[in-house]
Predict the 3D structure of the following.
Amino acid sequence: MRVRSPQDLVGGIALILLSLLAFSQIGDLKFGTASRMGPGYFPTVLAGLTGLMGVIIAGRSLVLDGPALDQLHWRQALPILGAILAFGLAIRPLGLVIASALLFGIAAFASSDTKWRELLVVSAALILFAVGLFVLALGLPFPLWPRF
């Protein structure tokens, strides 16, 4: 078969690889049942759905016409990837608040028309939302601030 949408093929393969990476990291977490979910339940279901979407998107690339591969825009991609990496490395030593601020600050460099005042307001709102959801509502043991 001929690939009719290279962009969808690459996207589908990327989702499949992301799914496989997630499955490899789930490890020995207990799955549980739908009524008594274990710590591995949601990550396993999410990884499975991500892989399924990847298969569907990659399969569509063989049937439906779509766009060719576009040039990768490194100026936008690198700050986003760097922001995610910085967040992952900073969350434990620096806490959720500072790691989130780093995430938004670094990601802002992906756009040349970033308005810094708006970035501060949106970042503050999203940090408050993250603290409220993950720490207060769900009770996840994220440190909020650095521990010295």
